[in-house]
Amino acid sequence: MHPFSYTRVSDTGEALDAGHRGGRYIAGGTTLVDLMRETVERPEVLVDISGLPLDEVTVTERGGLRIGALVTMAEAAAHPKVRTLYPIISQALELSASAQLRNMATIGGNVMQRTRCTYFRDVTADCNKRASGSGCAAREGFNRTHAILGASDHCVATHPSDVAVAFAALDARVRLTGPDGERQVPFADFLLRPGNTPQREQSLRKGELITAVEIPAHPRPLTSGYLKVRDRQSYEFALTSAAIALHIRGGVIREAKVAAGGVGTVPWKLPAVERHLVGERPSAPLWAAAAERAAVGARPLKHNRFKVELLKRTVERQLRIVGGTK
Fold first, then answer.
1. Tens digit of pLDDT for each residue in 312-324?
2. Which helix (H) or strand (E) holds 177?
3. Cβ-based neighbours of 291, under 8 Å, separated by 6 or more
4. Where is the FAD-binding PCMH-type domain (predicted)?
5. Backbone angles phi, psi at 13, to 5 degrees
6. How far apart are CA 167 and CA 170, in angstroms?
């Protein structure tokens, strides 16, 4: 681990000032500290923001949900409003990491976590995320766990967060504060596809701080859930996952929200699946036909071609679960 200085801040203004001067924000530290140990990350200044008042879950005036950036994963998963209004979020969180990590890691930190690509974490390997212009060892290396959607010639790494998939499905917004004031960014625009600049992973401006993730109000009744497929039952990242929310009224699907994880360089919205569902009556043939559209645009690599079919099956299975038909 390289030498660094540490400062703990007590208010948002102090945090923004330190961040604008180049400090790296840290709260639970469950990702950043690991990367520092591996010398992948080498911040000169750590700014501890764990004492800021950003640790509440509240219902918005219009019936949505605001989750403070410093709410821990465990707290968010157990919160009665989260469990009642959006069980998809609780399920995604409970399928993430270990209980010990969920007790430490924050919602903001989870969204900001970096890829688990082994080449990114191996400082001897070529990785454009870590060293721009060095190349992408995963493209010709062992790429079983890598992306089939949203990749570029410069990077094929997946985003590892489970709850980010649920946020993407629900059209969440990220609330930010920075030197230029407050703003909101649609979740779909907050995490960036690699393109030609894989080292730039979020649409944050210099010194900006995540204050909350906000879920807009959705029509009721809303049935939702998260399904994660992985190599082992616990403490493993997704090969594929499906976050689905359906508003069914009068026997007809009025609104559908669908996103996938483990297959994209960012949590991957599936608009073709959503469009096929809306206006239709739930049925097993409908779920199968909609799921066939889940892998539109997929570009598999040598070792992850299985993800194309696995993604379709995962989406179909979760549609059956959430939609209530067998």
1. 999 999 999 999 8
2. strand 173-178
3. 273, 312, 313, 315, 316, 319
4. 1-220
5. -60, -40
6. 5
pLDDT(282) > 90: yes
Distances (CA, A) of 129 to 25, 31, 79, 111: 19, 16, 35, 17
The answer on pLDDT for 296 being more than 70 is yes
Question: Residue 276: which CATH number?
Answer: 3.30.390.50
Domain-embedded: residue 205 = no
Q: How far is CA 140 from CA 121, 154, 156, 162, 237, in A?
A: 17, 12, 11, 27, 22
Residue 5 domain-assigned?
yes
276 in Cβ contact with 290 (< 8 Å): yes
Show which of 13, 36, 53 is a domain's final residue.
Answer: 53
**Nearest-angstrom CA–CA distance, 314 and 326:** 14
What's the total number of domains in the chain? Answer: 2
- CB neighbour class for 111 (10 Å; exposed up to 12, middle 13-18, buried from 19): buried
Question: How is 227-287 classified by DSSP, letter by letter?
Answer: EEE-SSSSS---SEEEEEEEEEETTEEEEEEEEEESSBSS-EE-HHHHHHHTTS---HHHH
pTM of the full structure: 0.96
For 136, the token pair is 């992408």
